[in-house]
Amino acid sequence: MSWPRVLAAIMLLCFWGGGPAAAQRLADSELAQIRAGYADPSGLTVSLGAVMKSYVDGSLVLESTMTVNAAGIDANPQLGAGANALSPAALGALPAQTGAVLAGDGGTTSFLHGLSDRGLTNMVINTANGRDIVQTTAVTIGIPNLPQLQQQAALAGFATQLHDMLGTSLLNAAPR
Predict the structure, then answer these.
(1) Are 67 and 108 in contact (CB under 8 A)?
(2) Half-sphere exposure of 3 (CA within 13 A, CB side)
(3) Cα-based distances in Å from 146 to 39, 47, 110, 131, 160
(4) How many helices (H) and strands (E) does the chain have?
(5) Rounded to whole angstroms, how far apart are CA atoms 114 and 28?
(6) CA torsion sign, 57 to 112 to 78 to 63?
(7) How far apart are the C-alpha atoms of 108 and 101, rounded to whole Å?
(8) How far is it, in rounded angstroms, from Cα 64 to Cα 122?
(9) Which pLDDT score is estimated for 175?
(10) Domains of the chain: which residue ranges?
(11) Torsion sign, CA atoms 10, 115, 33, 42
């Protein structure tokens, strides 16, 4: 599915679904690091960003940031302290663009992150013992004038209903 279609589906959910009930607002300083945008031909602007973070025993091992804009998708990985990047050969045909490995007691812990037009994926492969592994994914969608857009959509729906009611009334009132 293409990004414009994904964004259109998200916008429909926001307009008519009221958006997520437990949405968490990010600070402007956080958004500034992950903000991107897409504008459709009508001028509707949508920003989309994602951040995946992988931790072992409370320490960040791999962080991948993705932004979407009219030019495409920009994904940037950052390794945490003590982590080694997986080589392109090690990633092979896996659905990931980046990976990190961290040695541990009795083995290793490997993380794979994939951020692309096909979606967001992550994977953990662990052979180490006694590890506390946490992965988080935060997706941020911004529509600058969402309340006004919702109001316009509601008015357009009302106008359509009014048009249909008047048309039905006129048909029913016509002499037979």
Answers:
(1) no
(2) 21
(3) 14, 12, 40, 43, 21
(4) 4, 9
(5) 26
(6) negative
(7) 7
(8) 10
(9) 72
(10) 3-144
(11) negative
Of 141, 87, 94, 90, nearest in space to 113 by CA: 94
The enclosing H or E element of 51 equals: strand 45-56
Global pTM?
Answer: 0.59
- Which amino acid makes up residue 61? V
- Structure confidence by residue, pLDDT tens digits, 159-169: 777 777 777 76
CB of 105 closer than 8 Å to CB of 129 = yes
Answer whether 135's CB lies under 8 Å from 126's CB.
Answer: no
Over residues 47-88, the pLDDT tens digits come to 788 999 999 999 999 999 988 866 778 888 899 888 888 877
**Separation CA 76–CA 174 (nearest Å):** 66
First-to-last C-alpha distance (Å) of the chain: 51
Other Cβ atoms closer than 10 A to 121? 16
Contact status, residue 106 vs residue 127, Cβ threshold 8 Å:
yes
Q: Is 124 helix (H, G, I), strand (E, B) or coil?
A: strand
As a whole number, mean pLDDT of residues 4-18 equals 51
Point out which residues pair with 59 in neighbouring strands: 56
